[in-house]
Amino acid sequence: MKKVTLSFILLFCSAWVFAAKVDTVQIPSAAMNKVYKAAIAFPNSYAKSKANFPVLYLLHGGYGHFDDWLLKTPDKSLVKNLADQYNIIIVMPEGETFSYYVDSPVDPTSKFETYIIREVIPFIDSKYRTVNDKKGRLITGLSMGGFGSLYLSTRHPELFAAAGSMSGALDPNMTNWKLPPDRFEMLTKMLDKIWGPMTPDTYLPYSIINMADQIRRNGLPLVINIGVDDFLLEPNRELHSRLVYNHTPHDYSEQPGGHTWEFWQNALPGHLLFFSKVLKANGTYVL
C-alpha cells in the first residue's frame, strides 16, 4: 500500500512540475493611454529549449475579460494542456466587455484593433522567443472574439498564418440574430456605443459576411464552427454560404450545442489540431 501511495505522489508531483506555465502580464496601450492585462500559457518545452515558438492569440467574448479561457471552461486545465500538447504559446489579451476588437469610429477611448495589432503582438514578440513571422502566428476566439479573429486577420493578413472562429458574432446586423426583444434592445445599446446607431452605412464595413471576397483574396486557412442551437447560427451559415459561392477554401462545421462554455471547450482542441497542420506545412511547428 505504501508503494502505491508513494508512486501516486511521485506521479502527481511529476505532472505538477512539468505542467504548462501561465503568466499574467501587463501590456500598455499608448493608443488608449491604459494598461491592460494578458494571460500567457507557455508549454513546458519552452523552458527546456532555445527554440522560437509559434503563438496563438485566443480572444474572449462579450461581457468577458482576458482570463475567461482560464476561469470559465469546465476543464480549467484546457488551455494549459493544449499549449503543452502542441508546443505553442497561447496569448489571451484583454478585449474589454464590448470592444469587438475594432477601433471605434465613435469612441476615441476604444481602439482595440490598434491595441492588438500594433501593441500586443509587438510586445509579445519582443519579450518572448516567438516565431516573429506570420508563418508562426495564429488567431481565434469565441463569439465577440470570433468576430475579432476574422476581422483582424482579414484586415491584416500579413500578420497571421491562419484564423478561426467559434460561435462568432460575425454580423453586427442583429436582425438576423435569434434574440428575444429585451436582449435585442440591450445589445443594440451596447453596440451603438462602438459603431454608432446601426444603419447599413455603419455596420456594413464591419460585417465579416461582407468581407467574403477579401477573405478569398487573402487566402488564409480558416476554421469556423457553430452550435446548431446557437442564436448566431444564421450569420455563420451565411458566411459559409458566401465562402462556398466565391470558392474560398475553409473548414466549416456545425455541432450539437449552443452559446456555451461546454461547446467552446469542445471546439478549441479542434482549432489547435487545424492550426498544427498549418504550422507543420509552414515549417514552424516545434517538435
What does this structure look like?
- The protein is an alpha/beta fold and 287 residues long.
- It has 11 helices and 8 strands.
- The chain has helices spanning 2-17, 44-48, 68-71, 78-86, 112-127, 144-155, 181-195, 200-203, 212-218, 233-245, 261-282; strands at residues 21-29, 34-42, 55-59, 89-93, 137-141, 162-166, 222-227, 251-255.
- The protein has an 8-stranded mixed sheet with strand order 1-2-4-3-5-6-7-8, with helices on both faces.
- The longest helix has 22 residues, at 261-282.
Instruction: Give, in spatial order, the strands making up the sheet with the most strands.
Output: 1-2-4-3-5-6-7-8
Instruction: Kindly state the percentage of residues in helix.
Output: 40-55%
Spans of 5+ residues with little confidence (pLDDT < 50)?
1-18
Q: How would you describe the shape?
A: globular
Oligomer: single chain
Number of helices: 11
> How are helices and strands ordered from N to C?
HEEHEHHEHEHEHHHEHEH
Q: Which structural category do the helix and sheet elements fall into?
A: alpha/beta
